Amino acid sequence: MKKTTTTEPQANNNQNTIPKEDNQTDGKKQFVYKAYVEDVTGSWCSNCPPVIKIINQVKTANELGKRVVVVAVHNNNLRYFDPMHIDKSNSIVKYYRYLEKDNMTGFPYFAMNRHQQLYKSNAGQNIYTHLEKTPSSPLGIKISSELTETEGNVSVSFQSQVRLENLKYHIFIVEDNVIDYQFGVGSNFEHNDVLRDCSGNIKGNSLGTLEANAEVIKNKQPVSYKLLSTGKLNNVRVVVFVTDASNKVINVQEAKANTTQDYQYVK
Question: What pTM did the predictor assign?
Fold first, then answer.
């Protein structure tokens, strides 16, 4: 298997030889497919709690929920402050408005794979139906990280069974169990999937072309953040997703901080 390793922001052309896992020897195996759900939200937002409830139900009410990866992008508005807002949130929301071609008219706004807007009335059904129809993906993602309570780095490997072009990869740091205010609920609300940082370009970092059965490795991508929960690193996850030329998410993976999530194959 051909492997390409790079470390950004500086290019690194060194080749790493990595022992193959037992389940990587069969190139015909399909990677597990997961759906990416992005929730643009705010603690000041009166309409946001019902969407948060729906997302939590989607993740827990069905076995398919294990294949749903969520990122909650908290954003201030002109009058109200959200303590979970980060500096990059404004740029991410601005870019998201561009992607959605003005369909995003207010908060909350949530969508699947950055191309299908979701609605409270049928979000769960749409997500589950999509996952049932899409059990596998040609693209696999492997994640490892070295994180402290303020910064660190993430290494990601990408492998495809077919040739894929014009790809970008995205690395997000998210935090669970953040106890803070939520309009309409109170000051003791549990926020999960809270975005704390985005590595590199908010529009995505160039992955280029993945050749069939080749592996590309992005080593030690830097991240920095301010954590808000009591458990700190125990509540931190790394979320990595890949988008195509149309900005649609091809696949997504997540891993707890300072752990390694290997490629997942359909059994």
Answer: 0.89
